[in-house]
Each structure stands twice: as structure tokens, then as C-alpha cells.
Amino acid sequence: MCSGKTTERQGYCEEHVHLATGWQRTQQGKNSTERGYGGHWRKLRRVVMQRDGGLCQPCRQAGRITSASAVDHIVPKGEGGTDSHDNLQAICSPCHKAKTQQEATRARQGDT
């Protein structure tokens, strides 16, 4: 029976922590450089933000103009995506959060 207590980082109880995405488990305790987001990523991020005009690309596709706050892998690295320019997009926080939740759901269901 589930205790109802959740872990601080994943939000899962100890009994169900295995449902957390593999990415989360492998990234715990690592700084941004160790996760692959060091100097090279910061330069790449600047290029993509400039290319996309600092605007969220999913919002633009939906006819909205929203400032981007991050650069996102269109196809996640965990699903075979790369750091190539054509696999990166500027994205706002709400779109990034929704996309990340969809990716986590697919990972838990084994649909990657």
C-alpha cells in the first residue's frame, strides 16, 4: 500500500519512484556542465534564441507571440534527439512544462 509520502525531487512515493523518468534518475546530483549544458550549450542556446528572435516557437505555430525563456530539444535527447540546430527551438516556460510532461508520460508508458 502506498504511504502517500512523496520524494522531494520526483514527487513519487518510495514505492512508486520507479515510475519517474529515467532522465530524472540519471541526472540527480549533476551540475549543468555534467548534464551536457556547459559552455558549448550556452553558445548554442544564444544562437538558437537569436535565430528564433527570442520568441516561443510552439506559440508562434499556434498564432501567439510569446517571449521564450529556454531552448528546447524538439526531439528529446532521451528519444534520440541531438543538439543540431534543426532540433532546437526557443520555447516559453508554459510550453516547455507541457512538452516535458508529455515526454515524461511517454517515457513512463514506454512509448518513446
TrEMBL record:
Gene3D superfamilies with a match to the protein in the record: 1.10.30.50
Name assigned to this protein: Putative HNH nuclease YajD
Provide GO CC annotations from the record.
Answer: cytosol
Q: Which Pfam families match?
A: HNH
Task: State the Gene Ontology terms under molecular function.
Answer: endonuclease activity; hydrolase activity; nucleic acid binding; zinc ion binding
Question: In which organism is this protein found?
Answer: Halomonas lysinitropha
Superkingdom of the source? Bacteria
Show where the HNH nuclease domain sits.
43-97
CDD domains with a match to the protein in the record = HNHc
What's in the keyword line of the UniProt record?
Endonuclease, Hydrolase, Nuclease
Q: Which InterPro entries match?
A: HNH, HNH_nuc
What does the similarity note say?
Belongs to the HNH nuclease family.
